[in-house]
Amino acid sequence: MYFIVRKDLRLDIPGAVALAGGATIACARRFGQSHANAFAAWHGSAVRKVAVRASAEELEAVLAAHDGFLDERGLACLPPMRRSDAGEPLGSLPAFTDAKRPPEPTLQPPPDAIALTYVLAVDLCLSQGKAMAQAGHGALMCAEDPKLGDRGPRAAAWRTWEEGGRPARVIEAGPDEFARWRGAGGAVVRDAGFTQVAPGTVTLVCLPPGPEPAPPAERRRWWRRLLPGR
User: Fold this and answer.
1) Number of H helices, E strands in the chain
2) Segments of the chain assigned E as strands
3) Residue 6: beta bridge partners?
4) Cross-strand partners of 88
5) pTM, full prediction
């Protein structure tokens, strides 16, 4: 699955995560039937994502040659394909790692907004491109989960999220906080380890659309003193 980032798009980590997660779900829902075999093969493999950079003209040429979802802010997401089928200009576009930062940090949605919540392990120091891939994994895992997803009991919240422009709140959590969020009931992403992190590293947690969730409480550890003879 390709992410194509327009070269003039300014991003920080929260902005990159929010765009990628929303675009992945939109692409999967729009092209899931017409590209069913490709999605099935992709799900049966390592569900790899590739982020590349393109000028406005190159992006237009790619979308003329391939189906894809284009976010109006300048990010495209294409249905899965083999790299050998990318053709030109897609096959020769340079890899995307990080964009220039925007003048102001990406705004978070209000606490009562229905938004996807992404919790990112900040100590991993992921590039924007890598964080985008993790967000895409997490968002799609969450959307396709029978209990959390957009076709289950939370379907109304997902519709509200889509109608609201696919908003996202992003929490960059340190190790202790991230460990607590892992048990919060969201989709937990474990990376395959092709780049930047070791295989099996937990990189991100995605929670389904809803108001701002309360931070998980720290678990208390109770120690019992063992007395002689007990």
Assistant:
1) 6, 8
2) 2-6, 50-54, 69-71, 75-77, 115-121, 168-173, 187-190, 202-210
3) 54
4) none
5) 0.91
